[in-house]
Every structure is written in C-alpha cells, then in structure tokens.
Design a protein that fits this description.
Layout: E1 6-15, E2 21-30, E3 36-39, H1 40-44, E4 50-53, E5 57-65, E6 71-75, E7 78-82, E8 101-108, E9 113-122, E10 127-136
Parallel strand pairs: 4-10
Antiparallel strand pairs: 1-2, 3-5, 5-8, 6-7, 6-9, 9-10
Amino acid sequence: MKLKDGSNKFRAAMVMEDNKEEEIYGILVNDEKAPVVTSNLEKLTDKDNIIRVTGDEFTIKGTVVDNTFGYKLSINGNEVVSTISRMGIIMSMEDKAFEKRDFTHNTKLDKEETALEVVAEDSFGNKVIKNYKIVKEKKQS
C-alpha cells in the first residue's frame, strides 16, 4: 500500500478464530517531511552568510509549522517551541500540534562572534538544522 504524506485512512477485513469476518478501520500516519522554519535570520544574512549587528542582544523572530503530529524548535539547544506532549505523542489531530506557531527568542551577544543553530524536529524524527553566524561590530560614532 502506498501511503501519502499525512493521515491515511484504511479498512481491513479479519477472520476471527470462530471463522467470522470482522472489519476494522484505522488511520496510518506517514511523515517524511521536516518542519518548515522561517525567520528574520534569512532576511538579515549577508552574501557571506553572516548577520552583522551592533548591539549586545539579538532577537530572533519567526514561525515554525509541520504537517502531522507535532514538533519542537530549539535555538542553541534551548527549547523555544514544542507541540509534543510530555509523553512524546499527540493523541489526536484535534490537538492541532501541526499548526503554525510564532516564536521569539533573545540571544545575548557576549562575544564578537556568536554561532546560532536553529533545529526543528517533528515527532517522526524529521529534522531541519540551520546554522548562522552573528558578528557584533563596533558602533560607528
């Protein structure tokens, strides 16, 4: 059976021990797509893949969305968004764990260069990793 990405309904017939046939219905979920992350980082990155700033703090703003049962987004290992329950599963599509979420994250810039790693992973293990470098430049007088 070829599964489409997302929810797939199915029906199956079974023969029980007493030779009676029973039908069951269910849903199989197939997910081969990683979450999609968009942020202000893409717009601010220059041709050398560097974000140049003059402040001591940088705010990352964006959205993350997935197509099935939940995801989490972290920046430099700090969880920023999670739609995955504590048990690691989503109980039903009504949980709307796949919907788009906005996020904001502040990063302190203690050094001249700061590496940023943005990771979004869904409950099926599909992952997207984006790496950025922020360079803190001196303010011009």
